[in-house]
Amino acid sequence: PKLTCAYLSEINLAMRRKDFNRERVSTAIAFIEATRTDGGSDTLYCRANGHSALGQPDEAKRLYREAIRLAGGENPHLEAQCWKNLGSEIEQEGDYTEARRCYERALILAPQLMEAHMALATSHRDAGDLEAALHHFDQVVWTVDDVILTLAARGRRLEVYFRLGMTDKAFDDIAVILPYGDRHPWIFPWCAQLVYSYARTSDSSVARAICFWDAFLRMHPKDQNVQKERLLCLAYAKMHEQNPGVDYQRYLADVSAFLAEETTDAAYLWDRAGHWAQVDGNWEQAEEQYRKAYVLEPDRYGYCLGTALNYLKRFDESLPILLEQANIHQPDALSWFQVAIAQEGIGDINGCKESYHRALAMDPDYDLAMFNLGGVYWNHGPKTEAIRVWKEALTRFPSHPLAEKLRRDFSQVFGEYGAEWPFTNPVQLCLAGDTAISDAWQWHPRSGPRRRMIMSRKTFCRCVVDSGEVTAAR
Domains in the chain and their CATH numbers? Predict the structure, then answer.
């Protein structure tokens, strides 16, 4: 009996996919076959497990099926184990539907067989049936006393929670299993991968992601990947109007300390620091950090630097940078909008008008570009063209804040919201305006409403604009 137990232990160890001695497992199979000549279902089950561990699926499946046949309903728990292990062999061959049927047969015979719940949960998860997977993971978590199995179930369940958008529940599971991370090496990297994949760019979860990275760094303070991810999450929180828990000076110091040791993605991190300063309204610091990013990767980070220079009214510096962005690296409406701002700043009015027209050709719904184009025509002529452009803008964007500004300042021309236009001929309209509006009235094209747009790290950055002065957002 003692030798039998030793051989069975060898097979059980091998079934757990731990390091095992193949020769001992082969000897165990031969020993059981020689000493258990009755050929009962339990004997066949043990032999099948041995063949499964050795990677001999055909023989393993044959023995599992034979054991089920011999059990004949007299030993439902053993039959359930056979069905579960048979399902695992079938699943490895790629027949997932048949494998799930085997797991379900196992649970009919033994509803509390946690191995079957785990296998079925994992199979449903892989098939995308997340609600079903969650049900079976719950069965394991709330029923099993085995710490290792419970941790494994929680680890897999939290992935399902993330995929279902149930981030709070996912982080609750992380909070439970994280203290075991020093004894179970898989926990920290597994949780880190999930937080990175699902919680780093979500307004609802970024705060808890930051808490997770802080906890990770308390255990592994030298992990540079985690240090960087924490910095990126802090920046994301700041740029999405959340309290990151640190101020700009602390963030800048952390970025500088990190980049002193690791320069990978240095431009992107300097860009994040620039955005942080920009959100705080500190455009001098924003320009300084954007310039660091630009020096490292001019093709990618010229737009943000150019926008900051526009805000600081350093148009001679911003224009060549923005023109290169608009013509080569980021040829889109946002870039041409900023080019127009810079061109007006240096007095190139014709170029400014042309750039606004380019922006609108690329994005006809770029409301601020249309209002600003009308403003340039009003300031520099012809005013009839300004009225025409503004009329179109008011018709297309009646709820825009600048529409209200026009209706207020040109009340005798444009009237109240929803009112009929008093004139249809632009010349007539302009002449009417001449008697109602002072020639000193000026349009300030950089006084648009506050708008903000944040792009993901994998795309070209776009400036965060919160000043009410330079608006680069759509």
Answer: 1-111 (1.25.40.10)
